[in-house]
């Protein structure tokens, strides 16, 4: 693969889609295929690392609208149209709408690859230029929806939902097991919202004594309680104009839940020790690992707060329910790890994937990320035992040419000896080497061949 650029291929005809993917794959170009325009929308984000190739005629919507949409999101994103035989006027329209190129059916794989290569080159340059400009730091390899890797139907649905709700003012509840990406979702929502220039303030509601959490959230005036010497601005106020991420909401004490509910309803707060209401403009994104309805039934969570927050819930499926994302995530984390540790990017091998597919992933994506780091560093990990360690040491020090040649020679000799029932003379003749030479090599390579059974006659 040439780099992490991707061709987003929108084509409803399965044969055509397969043919295009194969042509691209043979040329070492990564692609991601969809059979309709709609699911492409959340994927196309500003700075998308790739180009778009779309069929003109699609079941819902059409290629030109998709080109228009893509250009509105990122005017520098190259789009290539695949047009039918008689669609030349439409192709011209598409070019007018800013399409980068068009290819008319039927076309050769070379034609497609050639056009895609040029588009990718152009894209790469545009992205390099925009990187030179200061951009918001991400630290995760991507921004907005690009942060959330995974083409499984479930992850596509998650991205679609995020794209839909990001711009609206609703508060959001994110639910998922540990390590499924709840914080990442919160950050995406923030980046895609009109609040992206405002602050993203995170607060963990767990593991903090009640009174401390209280003043963390709401702030206090000087002298509000013993030890409160100075006025303190709380996290809610800090998040003004931006997003407040409340992590582990399930651990928020009941008393605090009442106060939070009031803030959500009135969009005002009072610092501890003050009666003055301060207006705040925040969007709350709250994360929970637990089922809050169950907690409410057990009397440990306020149903009214739950209902206030669950207008929209983003449910993140555990990794074991979307194992088809593993390869993509692993490749993504390998690139990040290689960058971070200044190591070569490890290959995503079939054998490795096979071992990972059956695993339950209690730590979900975070666990996979840690594993990727270990592999990139060539560190052994209990998860995969000896085989992985072997794979990674091989990776850390690729075999030299001499070693490879010896390995090959050993294999040839062994095969010949087996073919000749272990006869040294016949094998030497077949390999056209002196018997003594062959004997030397057999000893050096530690080849042991069962001597041939004496034959009858
Ligand atoms: N879909 C994804 N694509 C890329 N990276 C992901 C994805 N999901 C999770 N990650 C990465 O996995 C790690 C864990 O994600 P995150 O911290 O968002 O999980 P979480 O649900 O908040 O976990 P916890 O409940 O334990 O706090 C992070 O490094 C994050 O960047
Ligand atoms: Mg988290």
TrEMBL record:
<feature type="domain" description="Response regulatory">
    <location>
        <begin position="6"/>
        <end position="120"/>
    </location>
</feature>
<keyword id="KW-0547">Nucleotide-binding</keyword>
<dbReference type="Pfam" id="PF00158">
    <property type="entry name" value="Sigma54_activat"/>
</dbReference>
<dbReference type="InterPro" id="IPR001789">
    <property type="entry name" value="Sig_transdc_resp-reg_receiver"/>
</dbReference>
<keyword id="KW-0597">Phosphoprotein</keyword>
<dbReference type="InterPro" id="IPR002197">
    <property type="entry name" value="HTH_Fis"/>
</dbReference>
<dbReference type="InterPro" id="IPR025944">
    <property type="entry name" value="Sigma_54_int_dom_CS"/>
</dbReference>
<feature type="modified residue" description="4-aspartylphosphate">
    <location>
        <position position="55"/>
    </location>
</feature>
<dbReference type="Pfam" id="PF18024">
    <property type="entry name" value="HTH_50"/>
</dbReference>
<dbReference type="InterPro" id="IPR011006">
    <property type="entry name" value="CheY-like_superfamily"/>
</dbReference>
<keyword id="KW-0804">Transcription</keyword>
<feature type="domain" description="Sigma-54 factor interaction">
    <location>
        <begin position="148"/>
        <end position="377"/>
    </location>
</feature>
<keyword id="KW-0238">DNA-binding</keyword>
<dbReference type="InterPro" id="IPR003593">
    <property type="entry name" value="AAA+_ATPase"/>
</dbReference>
<keyword id="KW-0805">Transcription regulation</keyword>
<dbReference type="InterPro" id="IPR025943">
    <property type="entry name" value="Sigma_54_int_dom_ATP-bd_2"/>
</dbReference>
<dbReference type="Pfam" id="PF25601">
    <property type="entry name" value="AAA_lid_14"/>
</dbReference>
<dbReference type="Pfam" id="PF00072">
    <property type="entry name" value="Response_reg"/>
</dbReference>
<protein>
    <recommendedName>
        <fullName>HTH-type transcriptional regulatory protein TyrR</fullName>
    </recommendedName>
</protein>
<dbReference type="InterPro" id="IPR027417">
    <property type="entry name" value="P-loop_NTPase"/>
</dbReference>
<dbReference type="InterPro" id="IPR058031">
    <property type="entry name" value="AAA_lid_NorR"/>
</dbReference>
<dbReference type="InterPro" id="IPR009057">
    <property type="entry name" value="Homeodomain-like_sf"/>
</dbReference>
<keyword id="KW-0067">ATP-binding</keyword>
<keyword id="KW-0058">Aromatic hydrocarbons catabolism</keyword>
<dbReference type="InterPro" id="IPR002078">
    <property type="entry name" value="Sigma_54_int"/>
</dbReference>
<dbReference type="InterPro" id="IPR030828">
    <property type="entry name" value="HTH_TyrR"/>
</dbReference>
<dbReference type="InterPro" id="IPR025662">
    <property type="entry name" value="Sigma_54_int_dom_ATP-bd_1"/>
</dbReference>
């Amino acid at each position: 693969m040439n780099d992490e650029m991707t061709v987003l291929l929108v084509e409803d005809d399965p044969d055509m889609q397969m043919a295009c993917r194969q042509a691209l794959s043979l040329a070492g170009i990564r692609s991601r295929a969809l059979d309709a325009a709609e699911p492409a929308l959340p994927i196309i984000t500003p700075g998308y690392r790739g180009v778009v190739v779309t069929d003109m005629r699609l079941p819902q919507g059409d290629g030109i609208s998709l080109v228009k949409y893509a250009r509105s999101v990122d005017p520098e994103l190259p789009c290539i149209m695949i047009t039918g035989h008689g669609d030349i006027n439409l192709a011209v329209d598409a070019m007018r709408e800013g399409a980068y190129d068009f290819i008319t059916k039927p076309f050769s794989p070379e034609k497609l690859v050639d056009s895609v290569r040029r588009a990718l080159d152009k894209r790469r340059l545009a992205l390099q230029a925009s990187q030179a400009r200061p951009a918001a730091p991400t630290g995760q390899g991507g921004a907005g929806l690009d942060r959330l890797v995974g083409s499984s139907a479930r992850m596509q649905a998650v991205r679609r939902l995020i794209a839909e709700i990001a711009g609206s003012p609703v508060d959001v509840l994110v639910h998922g097991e540990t390590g499924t990406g709840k914080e990442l979702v919160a950050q995406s929502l923030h980046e895609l919202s009109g609040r992206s220039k405002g602050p993203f303030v995170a607060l963990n509601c767990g593991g903090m004594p009640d009174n401390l959490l209280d003043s963390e959230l709401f702030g206090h005036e000087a002298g509000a309680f013993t030890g409160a010497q100075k006025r303190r601005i709380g996290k809610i106020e800090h998040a003004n104009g931006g997003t407040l991420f409340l992590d582990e909401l399930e651990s928020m004490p009941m008393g605090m839940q009442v106060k939070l509910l009031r803030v959500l309803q009135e969009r005002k707060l009072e610092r501890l020790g003050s009666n003055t209401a301060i207006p705040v403009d925040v969007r709350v994104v709250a994360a929970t690992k637990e089922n809050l309805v169950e907690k409410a039934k057990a009397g440990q969570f306020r149903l009214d707060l739950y209902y206030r927050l669950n207008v929209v819930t983003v449910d993140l499926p555990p990794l074991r329910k979307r194992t088809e994302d593993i390869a993509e995530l692993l490749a993504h984390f390998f690139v990040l790890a290689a960058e971070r540790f200044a190591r070569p990017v490890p290959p995503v091998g079939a054998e490795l994937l096979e071992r990972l597919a059956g695993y339950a992933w209690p730590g979900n994506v975070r666990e996979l990320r840690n594993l990727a780091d270990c592999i990139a560093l060539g560190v052994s990990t209990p998860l995969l035992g000896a085989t992985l360690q072997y794979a990674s040491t091989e990776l850390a020090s690729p075999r030299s040419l001499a070693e490879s040649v010896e390995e090959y020679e050993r294999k040839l000799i062994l095969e010949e000896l087996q073919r000749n029932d272990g006869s040294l003379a016949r094998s030497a003749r077949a390999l056209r080497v002196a018997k003594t030479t062959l004997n030397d090599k057999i000893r050096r390579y530690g080849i042991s061949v069962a001597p041939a059974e004496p034959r009858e006659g």
